[in-house]
Design goal:
3-stranded antiparallel beta sheet, 3 strands, about 40% helix
Length: about 250
Amino acid sequence: MRSTFRLLASVKPVRFLEPGSPTGLTGLFNHPAPRSTLIYLYSSTLDKLKGLPETSVYRQSTESLTRHRLKILEAVKPEGYDAWAERAKKRIAEHPDVFNTPLGGVDHEEGKHVKTTHDGRTFVTTQLQDEPDERLEEWDGEAIEAPELEGTRTRAERAGQKDVAVERPGSDAKTVTWEPEPPLDTNQISELETQIGAGLIEEVIQVAEGELKLVDTMLKAKVWEELEEKAPEGQWTYFSHDQFTLKTQKPPS
């Protein structure tokens, strides 16, 4: 049913979904990289679950579902994925000074590429930086100086300008162009949605984001520990299937 909404939202059949276009569900738009995003979210969730005891029922059930969906995602690869993965590994190897720093990031024209490792998998995420709007910034009380005058500078004014163009080793941002993972076609996305069975792939991403946040809440609450006040006897006893089954009376002789 959900996949039908996506078809109805499309003006004409396409091989690849356009990122940001309507999915057919109000307020939900096509994700630009659903496969890599879900693999990152699921790997991060598995990493965080390691903070809970292995005996925790929440950890056991969440790990089982997460690994099941992760296996489905990794089995479906977009066209050209293997060649792209080799180029990505080569790019990281060519710039060890960038991707192996403690911060694991490199500045680029719109933000920063960050290398992370979760559950044994290596990811390079792109963190975009929004341009600040000066109209929304609060004035800090600094005096507004008059604009710089045009024209020829005096010898004293030119004395400090010679250091402006000097490159300072180690302080200049290094630019590395990162190639995104090839996109899935519509048939592959439909296949994933069918196998996962939880709605559109964008809905699955929303649930995965919520689960990742929920793990932090469970860790903070220490849900695996005993209750301070013991539950009343029988509170956690589930009803048996035949407890409320009506019994027919014996027919009269």
